[in-house]
UniProtKB/TrEMBL annotation:
UniProt-listed SUPFAM superfamilies: Tetrapyrrole methylase (SSF53790)
NCBIfam families: CobF (TIGR02434)
Annotated GO biological process: methylation
Protein's name in the database: Precorrin-6A synthase (Deacetylating)
Organismal lineage: Bacteria, Bacillati, Actinomycetota, Actinomycetes, Pseudonocardiales
Coiled coil: none
InterPro entries given in the database record: 4pyrrol_Mease (IPR000878), 4pyrrol_Methylase_sf (IPR035996), 4pyrrole_Mease_sub1 (IPR014777), 4pyrrole_Mease_sub2 (IPR014776), CobF (IPR012797)
GO molecular function: ATP binding; precorrin-6A synthase (deacetylating) activity
Domain Tetrapyrrole methylase residue range list: 2-218
Listed PANTHER family: COBALT-PRECORRIN-2 C(20)-METHYLTRANSFERASE (PTHR43467), PRECORRIN-6A SYNTHASE [DEACETYLATING] (PTHR43467:SF1)
Length: 252
């Protein structure tokens, strides 16, 4: 099973996810070296897992964050991750047992675990059955924290990455853009003067940070806040919504 465990608050766990954790006997983890994340996983297992559960951990696969050939680097990293998953499952999951990966947010949104496990499952004999349990994503947590409705009436919402935003800018035909995985703070370089930003980091955790306002007015504040928080914690996960002002909503 691939179980979405939410953006950071233990209360984000759905009843379905809690029941799934209770069915699993073995939990597989990649150690990212982040104590806060490990502590949250441990809290969830202490609350919901069987007393006889086991945790199998593999070290994180190193990767270059700003390579010359980004697609090739990601493909190589994913292949190495898949090999690590296959080794853990083959060596540590008894026949007929239920194993689980606990993933942040929702398994269907910017998380590659399902894709990699399906590749592993296709090569096992008998084939593994991979089940996805949805979770509360950072996108949902961001909207709730700011009291937002992500879409305007009859309008689309685009979910993209910081790398894509840096390369292509704010789409002229999409009034609302959610940006994830933006280690470059691409929003700070946008030339647009009609954007509001709703930013959040460590959503749902005691470290949660929120900033909102005219992008041009608060961009430097977000960059500084982000840098200071990352230096203090040693890690950061943040998400934001860019909203174009003046986009009229059609009558219902």
């Amino acid at each position: 099973m691939v179980v979405g465990i939410g953006a950071g608050d233990p209360e984000h766990l759905t009843l379905q996810a809690a029941a799934a954790i209770g069915r699993a006997g073995v939990f597989f983890e990649i150690d990212k070296g982040i104590a806060d994340l490990a502590a949250l996983r441990a809290t969830l297992l202490a609350r919901h897992a069987r007393p006889d559960h086991r945790v199998v951990t593999a070290p994180e696969v190193p990767r270059e964050r700003d390579p010359a050939d980004y697609p090739a680097e990601v493909a190589a990293w994913q292949a190495a991750r898949a090999r690590a998953y296959a080794a853990m499952i083959t060596e540590q999951l008894p026949a007929g047992a239920v194993g689980a990966f606990l993933v942040w947010g929702d398994p269907a949104l910017y998380d590659g675990t399902l894709r990699l496990l399906q590749g592993v499952a296709d090569r096992t004999d008998p084939p593994l059955r991979v089940v996805s349990i949805p979770g509360i994503s950072s996108v949902q947590a961001l909207a709730a924290a700011h009291g937002l409705i992500l879409n305007r009436v009859g309008e689309p919402v685009l979910v993209t990455t910081g790398r894509r935003l840096a390369e292509r800018g704010m789409p002229p035909d999409v009034p609302d853009v959610v940006v994830m995985l933006d280690g470059r703070t691409a929003f700070a370089d946008l030339p647009d003067t009609d954007l509001d930003i709703y930013w959040g980091a460590y959503l749902g955790t005691p470290r949660q940070l929120l900033v909102a306002g005219d992008l041009r007015a608060v961009a430097d504040e977000i960059v500084a806040t982000r840098a200071a928080a990352r230096a203090e914690a040693g890690w950061i996960m943040d998400t934001y919504l860019l909203r174009r002002r003046g986009a009229a909503e059609p009558a219902e």
